[in-house]
Specification:
single chain; 379 residues; alpha+beta; 26 strands
């Protein structure tokens, strides 16, 4: 890299490629000129077009003794038998082969009656595994309390659980499973989208620059049709030629295919638990100097036993001794010029053996010093 801004005292370093992946760059350290133009459908969605979440409480049967021990599953079995007009002498039904579950799903927009979609099934009680289970017919309702779909079918479990008298083993999560195409829509969820109304495009990540660029790109294809309302919403007026039911879908498809170059704020995301650092392309640093050292303290304890010689008087004694050593390697001072990017700093620190967790501390210190010109997010 020619003209690298990193210096160590009076010596210049030529930076090479990463020795290890300690910094993840969302895009290369180039400017926005090298950014990739994306389809508008990948950056935004139509306000009225949205999925709908459904849920229900159901019962899974066919388990091999891995079901619930709570009364909830037993009560669900009793209720089901009563609905099937099964006369029972006793209402106390106990079985370890059934489990009470919560069934969740997302019904896509524009889905019609009779269409199928996937559901996820999760244990509510103390069941240890749903392997081999079958979900019995479960009504799925929306937030308004109305039933829109029913779910039923055998579960696919991506794990297992086995136990013996003194040991057990578990892989993945055997208490959660999926049923592909396990739900059938019984009542359509209306999506109101009329050709005579303006389209409201909502950016998935609100940004004023991206909103303006999107409006300009739409106007390039359909003059004077788009206006940015705020950082999230772009209002698109449907041209007269596309206001018929036959042409409206074609207009929406053309708008979604418009290419837009998104803008992203300068942001560094730090995960202190894992030592992960993710930085965007617009991160820049002001002039600063970095010095970072590690202090290693070692404590070693030994036990010495002394006892009298044979035939001599005395008693056996045990003594403990502790050895403490501290090592602090010498640390250099690294000077950063105004033109430095985060990629420059990361490469230089990586070549000098700085660990990802040390880099987390360094970037936090750079932010406090006012040298990191971006938003620092710690998760």
């Amino acid at each position: 890299m020619e003209g690298t801004p990193m210096k160590w005292l009076a010596h210049n370093f030529r930076l090479s490629a990463f020795g290890a992946a300690i910094l993840i760059l969302a895009v290369g350290a180039g400017a926005a000129d090298g950014a990739v133009a994306l389809r508008l459908k990948d950056l935004a969605h139509i306000k009225e077009v949205r999925p709908n979440q459904l849920y229900g409480i159901g019962l899974v049967g066919g388990l091999a003794g891995t079901g619930d021990s709570e009364m909830l599953a037993d009560q669900l079995v009793t209720n089901m038998l009563q609905r099937l007009h099964v006369t029972m002498v006793s209402t106390n039904v106990t079985s370890k082969n059934v489990a009470a579950v919560i069934v969740t799903a997302e019904a896509p927009a524009f889905i019609m009656e009779g269409s199928r979609f996937d559901v996820t099934v999760s244990c509510l009680g103390s069941a240890t595994s749903l392997v081999g289970g079958v979900l019995l017919q479960t009504p799925l309702q929306g937030a308004d309390g109305q039933v829109y779909a029913v779910a039923q079918g055998p579960l696919l479990i991506g794990g297992f659980s086995a136990a013996g008298a003194a040991a057990s083993t578990t892989k993945n999560h055997p208490t959660t499973g999926r049923i592909p195409d396990g739900a059938i829509l019984e009542k359509r969820i209306a999506t109101v989208l009329r050709p005579a109304d303006d389209l409201q495009l909502v950016l998935n990540m609100p940004d004023y620059v991206t909103a303006v660029r999107a409006a300009q790109s739409i106007c390039a294809a359909f003059p004077d049709s788009a206006t940015p309302v705020d950082a999230a919403v772009i209002r698109v007026c449907v041209p007269e030629d596309y206001r018929s039911a036959e042409k409206f879908a074609e207009f929406v498809a053309k708008v979604e295919e418009v290419k837009v170059t998104p803008d992203s704020p300068g942001r560094v995301v730090v995960n202190e638990r894992t030592g992960t650092i993710v930085a965007g392309e617009n991160v820049r640093l002001s002039a600063a100097a970095i010095s970072h050292g590690n202090l290693t303290i070692s404590i070693k304890e030994t036990t010495n036993t002394s006892q009298p010689n044979p035939g001599a008087s005395g008693e056996t004694r045990t003594e403990k001794s502790t050895q403490i050593s501290a090592q602090e390697p010498k640390a250099g001072i690294y000077v950063i010029d105004d033109s430095a990017t985060l990629a420059d700093v990361a490469r230089a620190l990586n070549l000098l053996g700085v660990t990802p967790r040390d880099m987390v501390s360094i970037f936090q210190a750079l932010k406090e010093a006012g040298a990191l010109q971006c938003e620092l997010t710690v998760i």
